[in-house]
Amino acid sequence: MDWRLGPIFPYLAELSGAERPKLCFLSTADGDRTETITAVYSAFAGSGFHASHLALFPMPNLGDIRAHLLDQDVIWVLGGSVVNLLAVWRAHGLPDILHECWQAGVVLGGVSAGSVCWHLGGTTDSYGPTLRPVTDGLGWLPYSNGVHYDGEEQRRPLMHELIGNGTLPAGHATDNGAALVYRGTELVEAVADRAAAGAYAVSRAEDGTVCERPLAVRLLPGSD
Length: 224
What we know:
The protein is α/β, with parallel strands linked by helices. 27% of the residues lie in helices and 29% in strands. The chain has helices at 8-16, 34-44, 65-70, 82-91, 94-103, 113-116, 155-164, and strands at residues 22-26, 50-54, 74-77, 107-110, 119-124, 132-134, 141-146, 171-174, 178-183, 186-192, 199-204, 210-214, 217-219. Strand 9 (178-183) and strand 10 form a beta hairpin.
């Protein structure tokens, strides 16, 4: 639980345009564990961000979720189970609220499950150690999303298989330490906090073969 802020966070502040950005983090995907929330607050101490959190377990910690989220400059979603995250968000009406935040200009982001969720789908270990597809993401970004591409040996071959057989549409994948940056639904760049981290465009040809194309990746200031 030694949670530290990486170079992506100054970049998020830059994207927000705020001098002291208000950032709300959501740890729904890991069940809103107290240990996680405490560790994240500790990491943000003295960071220049004004941090808050939305918890949905065992009940929402905010009286007016919509008002709070719309008042943020950045919303950051932590990793864990994307399947559970999507189910709980839908039960609480979060998709409509988060979509409104996106349209209002709030910077939305996240890691692992917090990246897959905005897309049409991707690969997930939400069901156990054998990876499976998730195909009911929020879909605001009309692509598939492959996370942990270099970190887990099942990720790349399953992504290829699912795009090849049409279970998932064409999309983008990232190694650990890389991130995709969209303006609206357009991918504008890939960034990373370590030199070896790659990003890729993965697509399907008419004959069902899968093409993987490396994307240019910009190393963020302060990276390894």
